[in-house]
Amino acid sequence: MSLSTAAQSLTWTYVDGDWHEGNVALIGPRSHAMWLGSSVFDGARWFENVSPDLDLHCERVNRSATALGLGPSKTAEEIVGLTLDGLKKFDGKTAVYIRPMYWAEHGGYMGVPADPDSTRFCLCLYESPMIASSGFSVTVSPFRRPTIETMPTNAKAGCLYPNNGRAILEAKSRGFDNALVLDMLGNVAETGSSNIFMVKDGVAFTPAANGTFLSGITRARTISLLAEGGIRTVEKALTVRDFMDADEIFSTGNHSKVVPVTRIEDRHLQAGPVAKKARELYWDFAHSG
Ligand code: PMP
Predict the structure, then answer these.
(1) Ligand 1 atom having least distance to the Cα of 161
(2) Which residues contact 278 (CB under 8 A, 6 or more apart)?
(3) Residues lining ligand 1, CB < 6 A?
(4) ∠ CA 35-38-41, rounded to 5°
(5) How many angstroms separate the alpha carbon of residue 216 from the centre of ligand 1?
(6) Could you tell me the distance, in angstroms and rounded to a whole number, from the CA of residue 191 to the centre of ligand 1?
(7) Which of 122, 182, 262, 281 has its CA 20 to 30 A from that of 37?
(8) Which of 87, 110, 127 is the last residue of a domain?
(9) Using one digit for the tens of pLDDT, what is the confidence trace for 90-148?
(10) Are 233 and 197 in contact (CB under 8 A)?
(11) Is residue 3 part of a domain?
(12) Best mutation site among 214, 221, 251, 256 for ligand 1 pocket (most ligand atoms within 8 Å of CB)
């Protein structure tokens, strides 16, 4: 493997008081995060001159750090301020992914849990164009979301993502773009990278937050925007059968905001009116602040 950073898009990272260009090396073989996976992150977006809900993403990374036994060292306001500072290094046109992170350098008691006093922070910003909203396909994954008893699902932690990664790869191996991942009770939880909604008879539905999946910031924003737009969202346990019978399916997540699902298993769907409206409402909201 090459150590070249040429294949990476323009990247700026703030760490220890300075900005560095490129994929700056931050952890070593003795770093607890590299060894035992003690890292948390959040993902926000800058596009078309706006960063919707940036404050909420910065607040969540601090909550994730605390949940994983790390000691967050920045306030959400400080992270927002650093982001606005770092964004000046970009061309003001290309969309940017905003990724604050905390990780532990050392282990604490017995070396296994993180030593919160060794927590480090970085803020990584990089060019990442928004994708078209043309839609994607999903298939039910053989892999499941863990519960809070088995994994730190109350944190947006890097250690949760190998499970998502294998679900996405397995779906891809069967010709689908993404996985529809169930919880341990067999109800629909989310995709491998976003939250999921369905629409039946003009009413939107989304799995009720039950601690197994990331109840996303874009999910909550979409529910409230739809409500203001006159469309009710019911949060409840939903089965694969509910999704197979849905009039529309769409996903929400900070990376691509609101995107329709155009195929579930062997069933093709149109990008429907509620998904379209949710996406328009999101863009109006993003530009209103
Ligand atoms: N679920 C997973 C697994 C995700 O990675 C994401 C994206 N962060 C989401 C849901 C959506 O969360 P949010 O809207 O807060 O970005």
Answers:
(1) 3
(2) 197, 204, 222, 225, 226, 231, 250, 252, 258
(3) 43, 164, 190, 193-195, 214, 216-219, 252-254
(4) 130
(5) 5
(6) 9
(7) 182
(8) 127
(9) 999 999 999 999 999 999 999 999 999 999 999 999 999 998 889 999 999 999 999 99
(10) yes
(11) no
(12) 214
Cα 56 to averaged position of ligand 1 atoms, centre (Å):
13
For residue 238, what are the domain limits?
136-286
Atom 13 of ligand 1, nearest CA residue:
216
Q: pTM above the 0.90 mark?
A: yes
Write the CATH number for 201.
3.20.10.10
Residue 207 placed within a domain: yes
Question: Within 13 A of 247's CA, how many CA atoms are on the CB side?
Answer: 11
Question: Is 72:79 a contact under the CB 8 Å cutoff?
Answer: no
Number of domains composing the chain: 2
- For residue 114, give the nearest of 162, 185, 64 by alpha carbon: 64
Residue 165 lies in a domain: yes
What confidence score (pLDDT) does residue 144 get? 98
Q: How far is the CA of 131 from the centre of ligand 1 (A)?
A: 16
Helix-then-strand count for the chain, H and E:
7, 15
Q: pLDDT tens, 17-68?
A: 999 999 999 999 999 999 999 999 999 999 999 999 999 999 999 999 999 9
